[in-house]
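CO-FOLDING WORKSHEET

Operator: S.A.
Ligand of interest: pyridoxal-5'-phosphate
Run index: 344
Mode: holo prediction, single chain
Checklist:
[x] sequence pasted
[x] SMILES validated
[ ] output reviewed
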Amino acid sequence: MTAPRPIDLRSDTVTRPSPAMRRAMAEAPVGDDVLDGDPTTRRLERRVAELLGQDDALFFPSGTQANQTGIALLTRPGTELVVEANAHLVHYELAGVAANWGVQIRPVATPDGRLTGELVRGALRPASPHVPRVGAVAAENTHNAAGGQVMAPAVMAGIVAAARQAQLPVHLDGARLWNAAAALGVPLAQLARGAATVMVSFSKGLGCPVGSCLAFAATHRALAWEIRKRLGGGMRQSGILAAAALYALDCNLGRLPEDHENAKLLAERLSDCPTIRPSAPETNIVMLDLVREADTADDVVPRLAQAGVLVVPFGARRLRAVTHLDVSREDVERAAEVIARLLA
Ligand SMILES: Cc1ncc(COP(=O)(O)O)c(C=O)c1O
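OUTPUT RECEIVED:
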């Protein structure tokens, strides 16, 4: 007898392209995007730019490469990037802004991951020949390490205003901006307003195998293209991948509230379990804090995997569970039962 399929809540990046998405990919008109353009990639870039209220966009193989390109466009070597202390750009891009661009991270500590205009103002030192200049400010929406937390348009506007006052551009890491827009019920462009560069990712909640876009003002396109090529991100018949993203915008964007409902359901089902404290999810990420000293993430994660539920450690006594299009409501109910039983 084969073991049942594990319920994979490690990340929303684990989704597999559906048969319909694969068909859209197979049928996409393509060209050589590095040589003289790929029609499907260009269609995606134009659509994403319009959705984000920007002039133009460029397709990238990954969110990391698009984030890095955004920071390169907005900063110079020897400057600082003001960014929330637990942002993806700080912890999960292998010190990319330092290694690639000679940019120093200026982390802004927050109690809960919520960057504000006030905090940005507080991080900006008075100009002096003895301290580094700031090159740019970066925001993240939703905030991954803070449990998929949503940044409201008014908060983003405050950050943009604080940056503008200091004549600084803002980069928005919107890998999960789709989730923020779905949770708030506002257009994507409203969440990106005032940002000079905006990254969005297709390989997370939207279920694509690969791909991100960086959106910006028309004047940035030529240099963004050069930087992407220098980073090895020039892709040839990329329409195969862009077609998956176009399919996802048509067919998967509208179902994100389902993932948010499932995350809430998981947290609710575990709320009575005395050994675990679930976060109150705003989107598709639930943080699960282990209450007993004896339960460590390193110990619990493999035991859960053996019981058929995959999550990732996110701190010594914290687990992260992410809902996505390859887990159903029934899967989430079963996962909650397994977690509660194992930690009883
Ligand atoms: C907030 C955020 N930004 C950027 C990225 C990087 O995306 P990629 O894995 O496509 O490089 C991720 C990936 O998880 C993310 O969560």
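REVIEW:
The chain has 14 helices and 13 strands.
Residues 62-64, 67, 88, 140, 144, 173, 175, 201, 203, 212 surround pyridoxal-5'-phosphate (CB under 6 Å).
[x] output reviewed
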